[in-house]
Specification:
This protein has 323 residues and is an all-beta fold. The chain has 2 helices and 21 strands. The strands form 2 sheets. Strands 1, 2, 3, 4, 5, 6, 7, 8, 9, 10, 11 and 12 form a 12-stranded antiparallel β-sheet that branches. A 9-stranded antiparallel β-sheet has the order 16-15-14-13-21-20-19-18-17, with no helix packed on it. The protein is globular. The relative contact order is 0.15.
């Protein structure tokens, strides 16, 4: 069940109620918890993590951009992949103390880290990167996502995330004197802000496509994280809560088939990777190891007692972080 939207994550330090909420929590303030701790060990720097990750998925073009405030450091990346040319390019940066101590953003605030920027005016989000290549994404934000507030660990109060897809988006990539474009309901957003467990692990799947009868299908599912509260199916924009999910895959995450099922038997999925992004940061202050393949999804969705086949494009992920 989706609860009605709450206006802000905090109110006079009162703990927010765990669960799923309709649409975006508009003012996810965390200042009350951020200030806890000794001056150099406040939760703002040592525990709170905040990011926007925006992806677009099509048969011909995959592209994404993220900006992350991990407290002690900030990171950003942008990438694109052209299946027909087997062309993948990525750029990323890490900046110590990349955002000021008072940075307590909403999703629609200004986010900027070096050559990476995200800004929103009148529900139009502009995501831009210019470096090894040029990436421009224009997202027409809608009010059809799901906010979740999940328990964290004994010394960390909660983790908040907002997911929405498919979002109408225009994408343009310029590289090596060539331009690649895509447009339509092809965008997916992940806005997260909270205090995840110090050791955090997850599997994640996100995709957009069509059923054999022409219904628009979009999915966000996760395992081992946020108590699986963010497992949501969108069918022609209708939101349907999913149960827990099980991920099975071989040792080569970027080549082996993935098999994903929900225990409520609504989804039975195969994922064929075309390639992947990966990172292995093992520093004193944090560790982040992940592989994120992108590719083609096929499978069945159970709607009103009837199984229907679908084809879609998206990403999957295996992630371990110690932060």
């Amino acid at each position: 069940m989706l609860k009605e939207q709450i206006k802000q994550l905090l109110h006079n330090g009162q703990h927010p109620e765990f669960g799923r909420y309709k649409n975006l929590i508009s003012q996810p303030l965390t200042t009350f918890w951020d200030d806890e701790g000794l001056p150099l060990m406040k939760k703002r720097r040592t525990q709170r993590k905040t990011w926007i990750f925006y992806d677009t998925y099509t048969e011909d073009l995959f592209a994404g951009l993220a900006i992350v405030d991990a407290g002690i450091v900030a990171t950003a990346f942008a990438y694109f992949f052209i299946p027909s040319e087997n062309l993948f390019l990525e750029d990323k940066i890490t900046v110590p103390m990349g955002f000021k101590s008072g940075f307590d953003p909403s999703m629609t605030d200004q986010w900027k880290l070096k050559k990476f920027s995200i800004s929103t005016t009148n529900n139009i989000m502009s995501l831009n990167y210019s470096g090894k290549f040029k990436l421009e994404m224009t997202a027409h934000l809608q009010d059809n996502g799901v906010s979740t507030i999940a328990p964290s660990s004994h010394d960390r109060p909660f983790n908040f995330t907002y997911k929405d897809l498919p979002i109408t988006t225009e994408v343009k990539v310029e590289y090596n004197k060539k331009t690649y474009t895509a447009a339509g309901p092809i965008g997916a957003i992940d806005f997260t802000k909270g205090y995840p467990p110090k050791s955090t692990e997850w599997n994640w799947s996100s995709f957009i496509g069509k059923t054999e009868s022409g219904k628009e299908i979009a999915v966000n599912i996760v395992d081992k994280f946020n108590h699986n509260l963010e497992n949501i199916l969108w069918i022609d924009k209708k939101r349907i809560i999913l149960s827990d999910a099980n991920f099975e895959y071989g040792p080569d995450l970027s080549k082996d088939l993935w098999h994903i099922k929900t225990s409520d038997k609504i989804l039975d999925i195969e994922f064929e990777p075309y390639g992947s992004r990966a990172e292995n940061i093992n520093a004193v202050i944090m560790k982040s190891i992940f592989t994120q393949p992108f590719g083609k999804y096929t499978g069945t969705v159970l709607l009103d007692g009837v199984k229907e086949k679908f084809t879609a494009w998206g990403v999957a992920e295996e992630h371990l972080a110690v932060w």
